[in-house]
Design a protein that fits this description.
Number of domains of chain B: 1
CATH architecture of the largest domain in chain A: 3-Layer(aba) Sandwich
Order of helices and strands of chain A: EEEHEEEHHHEHEHEEHHEEEEEEEEE
Shape of chain B: globular
Largest sheet of chain B: 2 strands, antiparallel
Strand content of chain A: 25-35%
CATH superfamily of the largest domain in chain A: P-loop containing nucleotide triphosphate hydrolases
CATH superfamily of chain B: MetI-like
Radius of gyration of chain B: 23 Å
CATH class of the largest domain in chain A: Alpha Beta
Number of domains of chain A: 2
Number of strands of chain A: 19
Oligomer: heterodimer
Shape of chain A: elongated
CATH topology of chain B: MetI-like fold
Number of helices of chain B: 12
Largest sheet of chain A: 6 strands, mixed
Order of helices and strands of chain B: HEEHHHHHHHHHHH
CATH architecture of chain B: Orthogonal Bundle
Strand order of the largest sheet of chain A: 6-7-8-3-9-10
CATH topology of the largest domain in chain A: Rossmann fold
Radius of gyration of chain A: 25 Å
Number of helices of chain A: 8
Helix content of chain B: over 70%
Strand order of the largest sheet of chain B: 1-2
Structural class of chain B: mainly alpha
Largest interface: A-B, 26 and 19 residues
C-alpha cells in the first residue's frame, strides 16, 4: 500500500528552481533514502514533505489525501534534525514529552509514554539531564525519542548522523535499522553518505541537481547504475570509469584504451548497439577486479602497480594500464610491490558500459 | 591555578593603569572626600561618617531615593516589556525591516539633552503640540510641571523613549541567536506561534534579558538630565532623584562631603540591585540552565 505520493514536486526560490518535477511514492512501512551530493535538493524535498518548506508546484498526498496546505503537526510527521534541535532549556524528559504536552496528554500518561520510548532507546537514566550534559550519541537518541513518542505516520530524518564520529555513526546506523525493523514506521531518510543509504534503505533515490538520477533497491543501484553519476556515487572505493573504444578483432569484441592497450572480451559476448564511433565509458568496480583468475573471470587487463593502500585484510591496488588508472580491491598477502607488472582478471558480465556523450547506461 | 607570565603582565599593565587612574583613584578620592567636610576654598576637615549620617537623616535624600526607586523600576520594566514585544515582532518579520530598524534606533542617536528639550517644548503647557493635543482630547490642562507624579511620569516616558533602542538591540540579538531548527522542531511538535514564543523564544532569551536588566538598572540609577532639564527637581524638591540631590548638595550648596557620601551610597544601591540579577545569572550558568 502506498503511504506517501510525491507528485511532480517543484521548489522555487524566487526565479531559481531547485527541485524539478520530481515524482515518487513511499510504500507503507518502507525505508526510503534520498541520497546525493550537497545541493542536490534532497533536504529540500524532505522539508517540503515535513511542511517546513512551501511546495511551489505539485502535490503531496498522504494515504491518498492532499496535504499541501496542512501544517507540520497536522501531517502527523516526526522529524530528526541534523543538529538534533533539542530544546536546551528543557530536560530530556521534557524534550521527549513536549509534543504530548502541547497535545494536552495528561501528565501520568505522558510520563509513561516518555519512559516507554526512553527504555527502548536506553536513555531512561538520562531523563532529568539537560541536552548540554549529554554526549553526541545520547543527544541523537533523545532526538529520535522525541520523534518516536508521537507515533507518527512518517519518520523524517535529515542527515541525522553527520555530526557524529565514524564509530558512533556506525553504531547509531545499526540502532536506526533495528528500530525500523521493530516499529515498521514509514521512513524517509536524507543523507549524502552512500554507505548509510546502502545499509539502511529498502529503496534509494539518488538525486543530482534537483533531478532523480536513479531510483531503486540498493542492489539495483549498485549492480545496474543507470548513469555514470550513480555508478561513481554508489560504492566505495568508487567505480573505475575508463574511456574506451569498443570494436572487434578476430571475431571477438575488444575494448581499446586511450593509450592503445587492449582488453579482449569472450567471443560470445554481445556489446550493445554503439554510436559515436564506438567511443564509450567502461566501468568496473574495484571489488570485481582480482589478481588471481577464477572460472568466471574470462577477461583480463595488464598494467603496472602504481600505489598500494592496505586496509587490513584487503588492499587497494592502483594500477596504470595503457593510459588508464584502475583501482582493484584484492586480498592482501603481501604479494604486491609498486612498479611490478600486474594482470587483473574480471568477469565480463561485471562490466558496465555508458554512452560517453549522454553518460547513460548502454545495456 | 595558572600563573601569568611577566610578558602578559607587562602587556596588561597599560589597561590596568588606565582603569586605576580613571576609576579606582577618583573613587578612593571621593570616598576620602565623603569622610571630610569641605566647600569651595576651604580645607578638608575630617568628620568620620558624619556626612553619611547627615545624608541618611535628610528627608530630601529619602524623597529622592524613593523617586529614583519608583522611576528606575518603572523605566526598566516597562522598557523591557516593550523591547521584548518589539523584538518578537521583528523576529516574526516586519515590512521594510531596514527602514523600521533605523526608525527604532533613532532615539538612541539623538543627544539626551536635545531629546529632553524637544519633549519639553512639545509638552509645554498651553503651547506644546502634545500638551495641546491632550487638552483637545478633553483631558483638561496638561500641567505636569506642578504635579510631581505627572512630572515623574513624563521623566519615565522620556527615559524609556531614549533608552528603548539599547534594550531592544540586546534582546533582539538574544532572540536572533536562537537556532532556527528549534522553531522547526517545535512546529513539528505542534506548537502554535504563541506557544512557540512562550516555550521557546522567551526562556531562551532570559540570559539576554538578565544582561539588559543589569545594564539598564545601573544606567537608570544615574538618571539626571531628564529630571534636571524638565523640573530641576521642583516643585519644592519633590521630583528630585538621587543624582539631582547629589548635584544640588555638591554644586548648589557647595557641600562636597555630603555630595560624595551620596555618590558612594548610589554606587552601593546600584550594585545591590545589579547583584540580584548577577546572582540569578551566575546560578543559571552553574546549573547549566541556559
Amino acid at each position: 500500500m502506498v503511504a506517501i505520493n510525491i507528485d511532480r514536486f517543484v521548489k522555487r526560490y524566487g526565479s531559481v528552481e531547485v527541485v524539478h518535477d520530481i515524482s515518487f511514492d513511499i510504500k507503507e512501512g518502507e525505508f526510503l533514502v534520498l541520497v546525493g551530493p550537497s545541493g542536490c535538493g534532497k533536504s529540500t524535498i524532505l522539508r517540503m514533505v515535513a511542511g517546513l518548506e512551501e511546495i511551489s508546484g505539485g502535490e503531496l498526498r498522504m494515504q491518498g489525501t492532499r496535504v499541501n496546505e496542512l501544517s507540520p503537526k497536522e501531517r502527523q510527521v516526526a522529524m530528526v534534525f541534523q543538529d538534533y534541535a533539542l530544546y536546551p532549556h528543557m530536560s530530556v524528559e521534557q524534550n521527549i514529552g513536549f509534543s504530548l504536552e502541547l497535545a494536552r496528554v495528561p501528565r501520568t500518561e505522558r510520563q509513561e509514554q516518555v519512559k516507554r520510548v526512553a527504555d527502548i532507546l536506553q536513555i531512561g537514566h538520562l531523563l532529568h539531564r539537560r541536552p548540554r550534559e549529554l554526549s553526541g550519541g545520547q543527544r541523537q537518541r533523545v532526538a529520535i525519542g522525541r520523534a518516536m513518542v508521537r507515533k507518527p505516520h512518517l519518520f523524517l530524518f535529515d542527515e541525522p548522523l553527520s555530526n557524529l564520529d565514524a564509530k558512533l555513526r556506525a553504531e547509531m546506523r545499526g540502532q536506526i535499522k533495528r528500530l525500523h525493523q521493530s516499529l515498521k514506521t514509514t521512513s524517509m531518510y536524507v543523507t549524502h553518505d552512500q554507505l548509510e543509504a546502502m545499509t539502511l534503505a529498502d529503496r534509494i533515490i539518488c538525486l543530482l541537481d534537483g533531478h532523480i538520477a536513479q531510483m531503486g533497491t540498493p542492489h539495483d543501484l549498485f549492480d545496474r547504475p543507470a548513469n555514470v553519476f550513480v555508478a561513481e556515487f554508489i560504492g566505495s572505493p568508487t567505480m573505475n570509469i575508463v574511456p574506451v573504444t569498443a570494436g572487434a578483432a578476430g571475431g571477438r569484441p575488444v575494448l581499446t584504451l586511450a593509450g592503445g592497450g587492449q582488453v579482449g572480451l569472450p567471443a560470445g559476448m554481445v556489446l550493445p548497439a554503439l554510436t559515436n564511433g564506438g567511443n564509450v565509458l567502461a566501468g568496473i568496480r574495484p571489488e570485481h577486479l582480482s589478481d588471481t583468475p577464477t572460472p568466471g573471470t574470462t577477461a583480463h587487463i595488464e598494467g603496472v602497480i602504481e600505489m598500494l593502500e592496505p586496509l587490513g585484510s584487503d588492499i587497494l591496488v592502483t594500477m596504470q594500464a595503457g593510459g588508464a588508472t584502475l583501482t582493484a580491491r584484492c586480498t592482501d598477502k603481501g604479494q604486491f610491490q609498486p612498479g611490478q607488472p600486474l594482470t587483473l582478471h574480471f568477469d565480463p558480465a561485471r562490466l558496465h558500459l555508458f554512452d560517453s556523450k549522454t553518460q547513460m547506461r548502454l545495456t | 591555578m595558572r600563573r601569568l607570565n611577566p610578558a602578559a603582565i607587562l602587556m596588561l599593565a597599560p589597561t590596568h593603569l588606565l582603569l586605576f587612574l580613571v576609576i579606582a583613584l577618583p573613587s578612593i578620592y571621593v570616598f576620602w572626600l565623603s569622610l571630610n567636610e569641605s566647600t569651595y576654598g576651604s580645607d578638608l576637615t575630617f568628620v568620620g561618617f558624619n556626612n553619611y549620617v547627615t545624608v541618611l537623616t535628610s528627608p530630601y535624600f529619602w524623597r529622592a531615593a524613593l523617586n529614583t526607586l519608583i522611576v528606575v523600576n518603572a523605566v526598566v520594566y516597562i522598557e523591557l516589556l516593550i523591547a521584548i514585544g518589539m523584538a518578537a515582532l521583528f523576529l516574526g518579520g516586519v515590512r521594510y525591516p531596514k527602514i523600521m530598524f533605523a526608525i527604532v534606533l533613532m532615539p538612541y542617536a539623538i543627544s539626551e539633552v536635545v531629546g529632553v528639550l524637544v519633549w519639553k517644548i512639545m509638552l509645554n503647557t498651553g503651547s506644546g503640540v502634545l500638551a495641546r493635543t491632550i487638552e483637545a482630547l478633553g483631558f483638561g490642562m496638561f500641567n505636569w510641571s506642578v504635579s510631581p507624579p505627572l512630572a515623574l511620569s513624563v521623566v519615565t516616558l522620556i527615559s524609556i523613549w531614549h533608552h528603548l533602542p539599547f534594550t531592544f538591540l540586546l534582546i533582539y540579538a538574544g532572540m536572533l541567536a536562537i537556532p532556527k531548527s528549534l522553531y522547526e522542531a517545535s512546529r513539528i511538535d505542534g506548537a502554535s506561534r504563541w506557544q512557540e514564543f512562550w516555550r521557546i523564544t522567551l526562556p531562551l532569551t532570559v540570559p539576554a534579558i538578565l544582561i539588559s536588566l543589569i545594564f539598564r538598572f545601573v544606567f537608570a540609577f544615574r538618571l539626571f538630565s531628564e529630571v534636571w532639564l524638565l523640573t530641576a527637581g521642583g516643585p519644592a524638591r519633590l521630583t528630585e532623584v538621587l543624582a539631582v540631590y547629589l548635584y544640588q548638595s555638591g554644586f548648589k550648596y557647595g557641600e562636597f562631603g555630603t555630595a560624595s557620601a551620596t555618590g558612594w551610597l548610589m554606587v552601593l544601591g546600584s550594585l545591590g540591585v545589579a547583584s540580584v540579577y548577577l546572582w540569578a545569572m551566575h546560578r543559571r550558568m552553574v546549573s547549566g540552565n541556559d
